[in-house]
Amino acid sequence: MAENVSKMSRLIVNADDFGFSTSINKAVIDSLETGIVNSASLMTNTPGFREAAELAKEKGFADRIGVHINLTEGKPVSNFNHARYLTEDGSWNKTAVMDLRRWNNKKIRDDFSEEIIAQIGAMEKSGMRPSHINSHHHVHTFPALFQIFLSICRSRGYKLRIAQTYGSGSYLKSAYRKYLNAVMKRSGINFSDYFETSESYCQRKQNFKKGLVEIMVHPAPGPGGAILDITNSENPELLKIHTSTA
Q1: Do residues 60 and 92 lie in contact, with contact meaning Cβ atoms separated by under 8 Å?
Q2: What angle do CA 125, 27, 136 make, to 5 degrees?
Q3: Distance from CA of residue 125 to its chain's centroid?
Q4: Closest by CA position to 36, among listed 234, 232, 229
């Protein structure tokens, strides 16, 4: 059985993708109610958004919910109309959005900024102020988008998820993530001091003697009422966080 983390001041266990669907919403709310997670981030451009917002308020979790900015799935909530970044049905074209070579046009950057603000605004209009900002597929850490997120969070007083602090990728990627995190910390907008997956935290928890650790999970319904963490979609595991730092 997972230990209750609701009273752990140095651990934020955040459930991403809240609002994606009814089944994901149930898994996230169940995880909050049982204390397996103590925070969640809400997509505002997905079919389950309004249901998720109402559940969060009804269950008393409104102050623990951030915005999970989504620029790679679903449709824009603003009047964003750059066909290059959309599919024929008006949904986000993930491949095009993640093609960093094309981010050199001020009008496009301004329209992406407007879309990000609109997604945040959708949550605020539902009656909740976001406790933090992060993004689907970590697009807020992309060079072309980071400055937009940084500017919005600085000007509006939001906390922003830092780049991953667990080992992955090349030396250059690691150095770039450290640079991003230093910029966020200097600006005072970092949501935590470390950002880990459940697996990496459990492997390295002896390293976190000081500071606030955010652990990213993706609750989903499993067999027999179990809640799975599908962060690794090819190898989903029972959702459990070991909070001991011994």
Answers
A1: no
A2: 55
A3: 19
A4: 229
In whole angstroms, give the CA distance from residue 145 to residue 196.
21
Beta-carbon contacts of residue 207 (< 8 Å; ≥ 6 apart): none
Output the tens digit of pLDDT for each of the chain's 246 residues.
244 444 444 899 999 999 999 999 999 999 999 999 999 999 999 999 999 999 999 999 999 999 999 999 999 999 999 999 999 999 999 999 988 655 668 899 999 999 999 999 999 999 999 999 999 999 999 998 999 999 999 999 999 999 999 877 788 999 999 999 999 999 999 999 999 998 899 888 878 878 999 999 999 999 998 999 998 877 788 887 643 332
Question: pTM of the prediction?
Answer: 0.91
Taken in order 133, 135, 139, 145, is the CA torsion positive or negative?
negative
Question: The tokens of 100 are what?
Answer: 């960093």
Taking CA atoms, 143 is separated from 48, 52, 150, 175, in Å, by: 30, 31, 11, 13
Q: Which amino acid is at 113?
A: S
Token pair of 40 as six digits: 């969640």
